[in-house]
């Protein structure tokens, strides 16, 4: 009996810890940054200060991962597509590890520059969040799109943006790997390449699964999935019939 109680208590503590971590990730950056000198960073980097620029670019990448973590939490909650949710959940843990790697690299490189004031403001990992890539459509097109999309079409468009973000992160990590190699930061290059490979795998998953997801869930007759979920007249039956007619997703 005592063993059962202890196991239950440990499980509850673990659940609370996980929930607390997710809440911390979602709220990170919502307050003021712990880098009080961030507003003057641009004035502190000398054009010939390669290590300062490396620190800056590591922090820029970290700000992207901070934003990506927040977005992943939201996407996992919002997506109605099981295949997409599975990939997002897997990438959430990868993104946490990428953030940890960047924080460690920033601290390690920062230690080598102690006492060099121009780099001091960059030596602490940032809590800021970057603006992630998205479609910036002409106003008339954006308005028409927002009025015409069904819920499932909105999700399919959002999956396109998932791929867009992964592509941007791949390019950014590629640049960081090259910087690290040219500056002789071999261990940093290894860590950054690991993150790069994770982003490449996620991009490949999105690219490979998108055609099957589109074929399975989209129909020119309207959003049957939404009708089924809303309990619309004939919606559930229509959705079931459509699924029987569609080829299975790869």
Describe this structure in words.
The protein is mainly α. It has a single domain (44-218), classed as Ferritin. The protein is built from nine helices and no strands. Helix 1 (2-27) crosses helix 2 (50-78) and helix 2 runs antiparallel to helix 6 (151-182). The longest helix is centred in the middle third of the chain and has 32 residues, at 151-182.
What descriptive keywords fit this protein?
250 residues; single chain; Ferritin; mainly alpha; 0% strand; 9 helices; disordered N terminus
User: What is the total tally of β strands?
Assistant: 0
Q: Measure the end-to-end span.
A: 47 Å
Catalogue the unreliable spans.
1-8, 29-36, 231-236
The helix-strand sequence is: HHHHHHHHH
CATH class: Mainly Alpha
State the domain count: 1
Second rung of CATH, namely the architecture: Up-down Bundle
SS summary, helix count: 9
Estimate the strand proportion: under 5%
Fraction in helix: over 70%
Global shape = elongated
User: CATH superfamily, please?
Assistant: Ferritin, core subunit, four-helix bundle
- State mean pLDDT (0 to 100 scale): 80
Q: Main sheet? A: none
Q: Classify the secondary structure makeup into a structural class.
A: mainly alpha
- Please name the CATH topology: Ferritin
Which value, in Å, is the CA radius of gyration? 22 Å
């Amino acid at each position: 009996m005592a063993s059962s109680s202890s196991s239950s208590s440990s499980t509850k503590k673990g659940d609370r810890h996980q929930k607390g971590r997710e809440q911390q990730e979602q709220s990170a950056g919502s307050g003021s940054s712990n880098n009080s000198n961030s507003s003057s960073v641009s004035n502190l980097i000398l054009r010939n200060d390669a290590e300062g620029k490396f620190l800056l670019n590591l922090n820029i990448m970290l700000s992207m991962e901070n934003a990506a973590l927040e977005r992943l939490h939201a996407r996992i909650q919002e997506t109605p597509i099981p295949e997409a949710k599975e990939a997002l959940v897997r990438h959430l843990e990868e993104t946490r590890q990428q953030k940890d790697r960047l924080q460690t690299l920033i601290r390690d490189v920062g230690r080598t520059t102690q006492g060099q004031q121009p780099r001091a403001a960059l030596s602490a990992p940032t809590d800021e969040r970057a603006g992630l890539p998205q479609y910036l459509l002409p106003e008339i097109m954006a308005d028409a799109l927002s009025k015409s999309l069904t819920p499932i079409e909105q999700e399919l468009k959002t999956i396109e943006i998932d791929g867009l973000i992964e592509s941007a992160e791949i390019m950014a990590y590629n640049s960081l790997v090259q910087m690290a190699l040219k500056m002789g930061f071999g261990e940093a290059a290894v860590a950054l390449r690991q993150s790069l490979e994770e982003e490449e795998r996620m991009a490949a998953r999105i690219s490979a699964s998108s055609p099957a997801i589109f074929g399975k869930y989209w129909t020119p007759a309207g959003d049957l999935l939404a009708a089924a979920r809303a309990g619309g007249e004939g919606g559930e039956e229509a959705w079931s019939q459509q699924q029987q007619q569609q080829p299975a997703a790869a």
